[in-house]
Amino acid sequence: MTLEILYFAWVRERIGVPRETIETDAATVADLLQELSAREDRYALAFSDLSALRVAIDQDLADFDSPLASAREVALFPPMTGG
């Protein structure tokens, strides 16, 4: 499947691009992150601590075990704080 991956804040800084389009067979977000981490050290560094990441699938907050079957977009970003 084709996915648009969006990176925000320090995730974008570590990866070096704000977005990319990839082809993947990943079944879940965790599978996707594992696949990306195997690409290069910059991805491995960005995804080394999943507790410091949040994910949204097609603009809805999701978990790392969420399926990607019908997803078009995955966004990765640090936890949000409110005020």
Detailed description of the structure:
- The chain has 83 residues and is of the alpha+beta class.
- It has one domain: Roll (Ubiquitin-like (UB roll)).
- It is built from 3 helices and 5 strands, in the order βαβααβββ.
- The protein has a 5-stranded mixed beta sheet with strand order 2-1-5-3-4.
- The longest helix has 9 residues, at 29-37.
- The chain is globular and about 25 Å long.
- The mean pLDDT is 95.
What is this structure, in a nutshell?
By secondary structure, the protein is of the alpha+beta class.
Radius of gyration: 12 Å
DSSP helix fraction = 25-40%
Cα(first) to Cα(last) distance is 38 Å
CATH superfamily grouping:
Beta-grasp domain
List the helices and strands in order: EHEHHEEE
The number of helices is: 3
Topology record:
Elements: E1 2-7, H1 9-15, E2 19-23, H2 29-37, H3 41-46, E3 54-57, E4 60-62, E5 73-77
Parallel strand pairs: 1-5
Antiparallel strand pairs: 1-2, 3-4, 3-5
